[in-house]
Amino acid sequence: MTEIVPVSGPELVTYADELAALMIEAVEAGASVGFLLPLDREAAAVWWRERAAAVDAGGQQVWIARDDERVAGTIGLARATMPNARHRAEVAKLMVRPSARGRGIGRALLTAVERSAAEEGLSLLVLDTETGSDAERLYRSAGWTPCGSVPDYAADPYGTLRGTTLYYRALGRPETSAP
Length: 179
Description:
Residues 22-167 form the N-acetyltransferase domain. The protein has 179 residues and is an alpha+beta fold. Helices cover 34% and strands 34% of the residues. The chain has four helices and seven strands, in the order βααβββαβαββ.
């Protein structure tokens, strides 16, 4: 059974090595999540540990999918910081271990983020993903709306420039309050 749970900053530090291993597996399988091959395990673990302060400060959230006490996947949510954008956040770093793909873990992670964002009063989520990727198929099937593509936006893990498609998901009307 897979369990989706949010992690605190200290928990993120605890999971950093396992998340680094997940990230390396994902990048080696071709996932375009911002890193190039070869990806050093310690550099990946440092990247995760550096997110802990943002998680503690509330600017970022991270969820993990635990499958038999092993991290099988992860997803993040970065809150917008400007006053005119506090109704939205960016979904980032959705990764599932290659050996765990096809079991609905990616969709479960995405659903957990959407549900949490809606409960927190966010009304809009955005993300970007490599055009034509497996992740793009997931977002489309989960009801996300594509809103444009940018050619040669980012390099894939092998260093080849690829297009990126931008997506959004409306969650509802934002709460309004007087300034």
